[in-house]
DNA sequence: TGATAAACATGAATTTTGTTCATGAATTAA
DNA sequence: TTAATTCATGAACAAAATTCATGTTTATCA
């Protein structure tokens, strides 16, 4: 079997010319290399080098192994380097799960400085999970979960990273636009746009319409924030989004946001991590960065 | 140090799920794999897997090694396969040196069936050598030398592969074209085209003009056979080439060839090989193929 | 819920492998 | 011819890998 040592030996011979010097460079005796290759020659039943005068010349087989070594050894060395970084906590991978559609913009602001700071951390953002977001975290499909509704379990810690108000968005020309807040029955003739999520998990239903036994005229799913807001701005309907996100878009679009009822709907975004994984530098720092980012 | 066995172990775990089954697949004990990875973990100072229930889950470091294994192990296996072929004489490389300009066409005819028959032999044809053709053969720059003038030495065997006549080529409209052969003094007013080789090594000088103390009006070098014959066909001069080669071109060009003097110049093409390298199947077969090809 | 099975870890004993040392043979250079 | 260089080889020794026996934890099932 071709082992790493064989690749090292042939590379050293190519680099230093003689077996003796190659042995020195590998901190082994000339005899060790000679025995080592002799054994391999026995296994593959073909010579690897031939003596020419008092030097060696690689055979075709030897050249093949040498070519392989050129390709393979650097990869082994590189992986050892990465492993070393992992050991020091300077490298690793962070797979982020998102269970909060509008948080994407916020996440981009978290990620940007983080990637600068941790150049060797691989990052992967996923949005759909085979067994639900919680399952994904527990089954190591992801390492971090970003969600507005944490499902507390003993194995997962949730850290709140920021508070915001969930607000209704209407066109600037809408009659509701003049109000400071909206009441449930005022939406009965409206078209509601939302991300494609079960209605039960939408706060506008669970915390606003359902308790008041009210409803909307029609409920339509739209995948992206941009298109949803285009529709709202065009007066085609209304939607519910985080206040800070609406503020952002309101700069360039004719839209307005108002409070749900008199008290409004207060929300928090949580970062969930497996509680066995505290003390991982780059993970802790991700959470710190998340708390810092508004 | 990352060794092949570590790559094999992680691959087997990925493939079979448990350490015990992985051990079976590698024909080793579960304990052996456990010890082996434990040692590596000590060296790289980071865990490779973690126990989850009674199974294992690779850490980030483990995943890295596994990814490396996916890339590297197939290469090792492939090289072992090639080495095995080399051992059986089914693979290797044949570097052919050419010291005979017009032989190129002939070589193509030899090579064609040969490549079919030996699909795993690498072939390389070289035409210029750092220390001369003989030196190239002795220094293992090439494995086979094709030449019309063998320089006999104890270390090299020359095998004649075919005989031919060296002939003068003239335009069909040339006054000499009516003759069967040409005499030295008849060339004194002619322009002679030849490949760029020292005149001493041109048979037309060494075997025809010089012995008769004759010469030509002008001697010009031309690199390729095609252009040389175009010039001759256009009546711009004459040249000397193997009879069989002229016959080939005469089918489509207004040229004619005639004998040098009454006896003509007889030539042989030789294949030279290092005499330590008999009994190499694919080399022997190359020579056999060369003898067969006219 | 307790018994059983499955899976991995660990320490000691053993076997295998790798390494060195001493030496020989071949080649080159002085 | 002599000395130096280089690789090969066998024997002794050292180190590493492997197994064996056993322990611990976790999952399964009656």
UniProtKB/TrEMBL annotation, chains A, B:
Any Pfam family matching the protein: HTH_1
Protein name in the entry: HTH-type transcriptional regulator MetR
UniProt keyword NADP present: no
Keywords annotated in UniProt: Activator, Amino-acid biosynthesis, Cytoplasm, DNA-binding, Methionine biosynthesis, Repressor, Transcription, Transcription regulation
Domain HTH lysR-type: 1-59
Record's keyword annotation contains Hydrolase: no
GO biological process per UniProt: methionine biosynthetic process
Subcellular location(s) of the protein: Cytoplasm
């Amino acid at each position: 079997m071709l082992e790493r040592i064989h690749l090292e030996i042939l590379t050293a011979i190519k680099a230093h010319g003689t077996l003796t010097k190659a042995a020195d460079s590998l901190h082994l005796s000339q005899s060790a290399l000679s025995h080592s290759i002799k054994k391999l020659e026995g296994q593959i039943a073909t010579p690897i080098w031939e003596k020419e005068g008092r030097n060696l010349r690689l055979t075709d087989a030897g050249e093949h192994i040498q070519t392989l070594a050129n390709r393979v050894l650097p990869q082994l060395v590189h992986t050892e380097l990465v492993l070393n970084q992992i050991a020091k906590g300077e490298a690793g991978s962070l797979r982020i799960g998102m269970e909060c559609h509008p948080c994407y913009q916020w996440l981009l602001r978290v990620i940007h400085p983080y990637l600068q700071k941790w150049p060797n951390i691989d990052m992967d953002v996923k949005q759909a999970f085979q067994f639900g977001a919680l399952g994904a975290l527990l089954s190591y499909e992801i390492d971090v979960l970003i969600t507005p509704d944490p499902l507390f379990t003993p194995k997962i810690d949730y850290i709140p990273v920021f508070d915001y108000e969930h607000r209704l968005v209407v066109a600037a020309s809408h009659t509701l636009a003049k109000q400071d807040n909206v009441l449930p029955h005022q939406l009965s003739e409206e078209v509601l746009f939302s991300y494609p999520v079960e209605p039960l998990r939408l706060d506008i239903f669970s915390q606003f319409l359902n308790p008041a036994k009210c409803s909307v005229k029609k409920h339509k799913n739209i995948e992206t924030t941009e298109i949803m807001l285009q529709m709202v701005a065009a007066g085609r309907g209304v939607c519910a989004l985080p206040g800070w996100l609406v503020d952002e878009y309101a700069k360039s679009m004719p839209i307005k946001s108002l409070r749900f009822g008199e008290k409004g709907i207060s929300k928090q975004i949580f970062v969930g991590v497996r509680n066995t994984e505290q003390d991982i530098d780059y993970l802790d720092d991700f959470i710190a960065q998340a708390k810092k980012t508004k």
